[in-house]
Structures
1.
Amino acid sequence: MKIAPSILSADFGRLLEDVKRVEEAGADLLHVDVMDGQFVPNITIGPLVVEALKGRTSLPLDVHLMICDPDRFVHEFIRAGAQHLSFHVEACVHLHRTVHAIKEEGVRAGVGINPGTSLSSVECILPDLDFVVLMSVNPGFGGQTFIPAVLPKIRALRQMIDEQGLSTVISVDGGINADTACLVRDAGADQIVAGSAIYGRKDIRQAILDLRG
Ligand code: DX5
Ligand code: ZN
């Protein structure tokens, strides 16, 4: 499984240093949580911060938009350096248009699904997606508890992808620690996002090893 540390749990006062720490510890991607205070009850970072990281890390920037009406900002985040860009099905009316707007710019497109949203919301568009972000917490904050109801969703999505012979990546985001990483891997996830389970540990290299199981 690929590991995407979320900088939401990093020390923003020394962000680049914390990015280098996960890079050196063997992370695969850098997960950047963008929140607008409307779609989720928290405000985090905008394109300026993504731009500040661009070219300063070898990790691909995996930008997770938790914002209303994501079309307004897709191009700006791509200009800022997003190489993987996801937005939420609950926040977007014309899913197909937004996915293709991202892909036309040569960026990998993903759709996020909240714990209370059915997989059927992305079924029709699955072949167009590079990845699906299955949320295992209600988005908004780091350090929340994993919601086990995501496990049957991972299994069902794995089956859909395999049956159709697709290469869509299943990413699972929220409440991931060594125990839950094991559960989501067994259910068929390809990638996990983890914030507190990585940045909350002194030994980040060991934290990433523990998540790999
Ligand atoms: C939640 C974010 C997550 C968050 C995960 O809204 O999308 O990426 O940073 O944090 P942990 O791993 O602490 O649950
Ligand atoms: Zn996220």
2.
Amino acid sequence: VVFVQVAVDVPVDKQFDYSAPDAGIEDIGRRVIVPFGRKRVLGVIVAVGRPATPTAQIKSVEAILRDDSRLPPDVLALLEFAADYYRHPIGQVVFAALPPALRRGRALTLHVEQHFRLTSQGREAKLPARAQRLRRTVETLRERGVQSAPELAAAGATAALLRDLIARGWIALTLEPERIYKKACTHLQLTAEQQEALDRIAPHLTEYGVWLLHGITGSGKTEVYLQLVERVLARGGQAMVLVPEINLTPQLEARFRARFPQVEQVSLHSNLAEVERAQRWLKASAGVARVVLGTRLAVFTPMPRLALVVVDEEHDASFKQNDGLRYSARDLAIYRAKARGAPVVLGSATPSLESYHHAQRGRYRMLTMSQRAHAQARLPAIRLVDLRVNNAEHGLTDPLTRALAGRLAAGEQSLVFINRRGYAPVLYCPHCAWTSGCPRCSVKLVFHRKDQRLWCHHCGHSEPPPRHCPSCGNADLQPLGEGTQRVEDALQRHFPPARILRIDRDAVRGRDAWHQVAQRVGSGEADILVGTQLLAKGHDFPRITLVGMLNVDAALVSPDFRATERLFSLMLQVAGRAGRGELPGEVLIQTTFPTHPLFDWVLRQDYAAFARALLIERKTTGFPPFVHHALLRIESANEEAAQEFARAAAAGARALNSGNITIYDAVPAPLARLAGRTRMQVLAESPSRTKLQEFLQTWQRELTAKNARHVRWALDVDPQEL
Ligand code: ADP
Ligand code: ZN
Ligand code: ZN
């Protein structure tokens, strides 16, 4: 008999042995139905070989799904690496990587449209003058190369005619990837910097290498990606392009489609119907889809001819998954490119300090683009508005409203950025200083004007606002601070005729909402955009000439050591929305701390100086990238249980530690209570990644052995938030 090792979606870090008489190594990566306890479950065969269990106890698989969904060896290796590195059970890693439709025991086949090409006979055949449909069909193929059945139907080909042409030996069925690759017409004259970036990567397209494309906003990084992808396609390869945000996919998708109309392209993200997502995955997996564009989850997509990986906005925190398998898609993308012998391009205007550090040390190669691509576009001028001397009313200061009025008069677009949706982040009693807190979390409830309710942005709790102060009975409760809704209201009162468009998660919901918003902005239907983070990333709206940032102070006083790094890139990203077209841009940043050193670099828009200074600081104080972190996250409905487990975990870690690892005391998480649960954390740190990995293995084993009841815990390797 043959034995197979199966990964099953259970929180136990092992593979399970089964016998499978007819299995062979070609079944590795296939889904199987197996008996598990008293149930039948779906699993994935990860190996074929000698069992670890005594053979008498081994049950046999019920069915192997020999469909199109097989995970290829390189993806399995990636998953095994991820399971090991992120200390997550292999079965759960495998299942997290599968599109949801494949997590069920149904067979799936790729629906491929039939494609036809001319044979040499067909190419030379003399066409009968009178057979109209036949002429048009053959001529279409002669003109365009490969065509799908529906495309030929449009030229008048009936099924009978196609059969007839096959019988004559004039046409043949073909797989789409063989589609003749026509050289894309590139309309843009590359800038010198774009050309140089391309020239440097081009000779290395068939080998592994990490390229850090550090290009300011609007320098034309996307054009560089497009031209690299083009070269890879011309050689028959597939390209993977990762972006941080679902909303960025449509714009980018459109650009890629326009550039490569003849190749199949799919985008993959969580906001797709299950069947559709599975079909796209299968297309990539069959090599039919040549370009895969997606959010972090796309990093696991099987691509047999993967030859280029691009990670756009590589610094973005959303490449890190924050629950379950806490992976970094950027880091896994690099691992994957390496295993594959393919280049990976990390693009950003404000690279993460980790990547920048690698580039400085020569592990990555740096490409710099410091000019905007559009001949007339320059970097916007950035000015600070000192909140100590300029009063803000509903978040808006005089200098900002004057600037807005100027743009309105000139018929140009403005963007007002504020990092909080809702009306006001807190309801406040001026009498006794009571504030509206979430009963289940350690945060304030945000007042939303539209539905007149208080909402918790963390746990989703909502309640009507009290009529009187619950603490002193005062009837005059007031909103404190600003959210997007309040700023929208205030702007509308200031500028009654202005067309104001609010862009946050409340306003932009559903599959097409973003697309519509982007179109309205692009076609100039809005004068002022009020938006959150959603607006900050990557979008190209050439008519925006003024950007106001209302509230950046919180990050300047945050205890998280990454807060300033994130704020810096946020400010440059948001500023990057201004002046992308022919009109010059201006940025006003309102702050109470205008003398904070961060603003020196922001005003000069000097990422390199900022990065150098911060890296020196990180080195002297001993923070990443000079040390590596792993965070034990603990939560429990029982406060004491959480504290007790955290204390014991820290003590246990210290006992295990053979030097090289620093274990910090157990502390409450920044969000100390979430949805009624107490959250604690223990930080482990080491200058050596290997040592830290070794330590985590034993620590995890000990923690598991505690069999803690009422406590949930997870290790977060390379945590992005502390
Ligand atoms: P980035 O991704 O670096 O922010 P984009 O690739 O979105 O920049 O380019 C910014 C703008 O400049 C886009 O409107 C793009 O069409 C335009 N652009 C890019 N490259 C060129 C070029 N070589 N010549 C003219 N315009 C360009
Ligand atoms: Zn009160
Ligand atoms: Zn809450």
